[in-house]
Structure to design on (324 residues):
């Protein structure tokens, strides 16, 4: 099986409930659930059950298992296949879940958000049961644009929204096969709308997290390599990193600028170095403007003067004088 998303309908469960089935459970976890590697945490017979279904790319996974420790490293994450965000309802038992510096302890009736694109670990109690719904990231971002900042967050039963969402997740697992195929997408949209309702502005991250800082550095490096390519823009960068344009804009806002301003400054810096370099002496200001992505020479000149205090032509003349 190449991808969890290729599942179609209910997968028959072949685990033997009357025997120690840990080895089989471990192989099922590796094959059917994003290559999790699990280790048993207790001696004696192990009991585990797995059932997975998929509906147009949304995966439903029902797990019951004794105490295990699960690990997913960067090396085991297949980026082309694992671009999912999970919403797990703890039915029984509980687990400790960690992604990066984030950690969540979850018990029965609590929900957990987790990201299949990030390395993670978990430890579970005996008799833990999880009902997972795994959504393609692109679908989640349509309803919860800041979802990347909410990974490894739990939703408890303290609020009405959390209780309703937990009940909804359980009902989806129980009743989704009775929903006409044409209507299932609306059910999953409702799930995401309920998820979004569980967070408020004060829940959002204020200031850059370690993840956001690392993400911003990756984006900046990519932009430096790609900004002169045809079709480059905010949308193309967002698609490359599988995030929303709004989220990408938010990353740059932490630096006191916007995506477009950052890109313009990068283009202007390159143009300035070219104007001062003998290697580009044969190109006119108009040609350099086009080379570095400005729509016309007049726009380039205005932007250059605004940033550096003189026109590109004057800057080139002064650079020539210094070289002479």
């Amino acid at each position: 099986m190449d991808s969890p998303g290729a599942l179609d309908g209910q997968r028959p469960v072949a685990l033997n409930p009357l025997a120690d089935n840990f080895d089989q459970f471990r192989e099922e976890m590796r094959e059917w659930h994003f290559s999790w590697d699990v280790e048993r945490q207790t001696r004696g017979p192990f009991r585990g059950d797995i059932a997975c279904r998929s509906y147009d790319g949304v995966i439903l996974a029902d797990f019951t298992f004794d105490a295990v420790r699960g690990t997913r490293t960067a090396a085991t994450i297949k980026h082309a296949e694992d671009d999912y965000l999970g919403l797990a309802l703890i039915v029984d038992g509980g687990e400790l879940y960690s992604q990066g510096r984030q950690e969540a302890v979850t018990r029965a009736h609590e929900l957990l958000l987790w990201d299949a694109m990030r390395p993670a670990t978990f430890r579970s109690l005996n008799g833990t049961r999880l009902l997972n719904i795994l959504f393609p990231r692109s679908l989640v971002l349509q309803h919860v644009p800041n979802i990347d900042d909410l990974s490894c967050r739990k939703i408890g039963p303290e609020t009405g929204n959390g209780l309703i969402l937990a009940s909804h997740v359980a009902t989806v697992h129980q009743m989704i096969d009775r929903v006409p195929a044409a209507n299932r997408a609306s059910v999953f949209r409702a799930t995401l709308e309920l998820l979004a309702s569980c967070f408020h502005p004060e829940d959002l991250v204020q200031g850059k997290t370690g993840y956001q800082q690392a993400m911003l550095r990756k984006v900046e490096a990519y932009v430096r390599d790609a900004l002169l390519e045809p079709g480059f823009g905010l949308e193309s960068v967002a698609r490359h990193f599988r995030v929303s344009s709004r989220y990408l804009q938010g990353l740059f806002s932490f630096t006191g600028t916007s995506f477009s301003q950052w890109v313009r400054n990068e283009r202007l810096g390159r143009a300035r170095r070219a104007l001062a370099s003998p290697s580009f002496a044969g190109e006119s200001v108009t040609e350099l403007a086009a080379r570095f992505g400005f729509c016309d020479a007049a726009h380039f000149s205005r932007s250059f003067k605004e940033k550096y205090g003189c026109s590109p032509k004057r800057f080139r003349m002064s650079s020539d004088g210094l070289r002479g």
User: Anything to note?
Assistant: Confidence is low (pLDDT under 50) at residues 1-8, 10-15, 201-207. The radius of gyration is 26 Å.
